[in-house]
Amino acid sequence: MEKSDKLPAAPQPYKSWKELPHVPVSYPQLGSIGATGEWRTFKPELNAKLCNKCGMCYLYCPDGVISYKEDALPEIDYMFCKGCGICASICPKKALEMVREKE
Q1: Residue 55 in contact with residue 96, Cβ under 8 Å?
Q2: pLDDT at position 3 over 60
């Protein structure tokens, strides 16, 4: 008998990845200590015509600054966005584009 035969099957409470709870790497720090909007050099801009509202940007944002509601466009909190570009790189429709901040 192999070791894997002795282990009980793990419960699967979620039927789809869409049911998984959103857990970013970190949440934005409130107040000026967490504000990053002034030192960012690039920011993501959303092209609403290309967005298919899949929520991938919301799931992959390491700082949890993208809010997403089903059947609505994602919203980015630029005060706390660091401009890392993960959201733009993961977008399957290339609806997010990293653009240089204006001075």
Answers
A1: no
A2: no
Number of domains in the chain: 1
Whole domain around residue 75: which residue ranges? 51-103
Alpha helix segments (H runs only) across the chain: 3-6, 56-60, 86-90
Report the DSSP beta bridge partners of residue 67: 75
The CATH number of residue 56's host domain is 3.30.70.20
Domain-embedded: residue 11: no
Report which DSSP code applies to 87: H
**Does 2 reside within a domain?**
no
90 lies in some domain:
yes
DSSP state, 28?
P
CB 28 within 8 Å of CB 63: yes
Question: Which pTM value belongs to this model?
Answer: 0.68
Instruction: Name residue 45's beta-bridge partners.
Output: 97
Q: Is the pLDDT of residue 37 over 80?
A: no
